[in-house]
What does this fold into?
Amino acid sequence: MATLQDIGVSAFINILGAFAFLLAFALLRIQPINDRVYFPKWYISGGRTSPRRSGNFVGKFVNLNFWTYLTFLNWMPQAMRMSEAEIIQHAGLDSAVFLRIYLLGLKIFLPITILALLILIPVNVSSGTLFFLKKELVVSDIDTLSISNVRPQSTSVFYPHRDGVFVHDVDLLHALQGIS
It folds into this structure.
């Protein structure tokens, strides 16, 4: 059975991996050798030429401008401020669809995560039903965070769960209504 420590280690590894991929993407994006991969639309429209035709030998493959390594994540806030039409014109339809799906996921899962962390988990942990059950029943640390830790007779403790589902459904309908 997984414990809270196992979940924490797994979350740490996944977050570390996500930041490593973001860092690799951002660093590879500013290298001249990768221009055709990261900016193909600019080559097609003639807005950019191959770095292999000009500059010194090392500059054709590696970005030698130190300032770009300090500001390599500046594209992220700019991309989030662009309208969908600007993103389609600048990066293509696939990028616009990806950002739309990403933002929809944030609109759906961020509120339910906040609701669960602030209301549902403390209600579940405070009940403590699993510790009073038979000793042959095997429970883990994660079970204390779930609704199975709430006593069936205490109906008032089920209200936050019911209300949480209602709030999530309303939020989900609101998020889906914004899709055109």
User: Anything to note?
Assistant: The radius of gyration is 25 Å. The chain has a mean pLDDT of 82. Residues 51 and 60 are 5 Å apart (CA to CA).
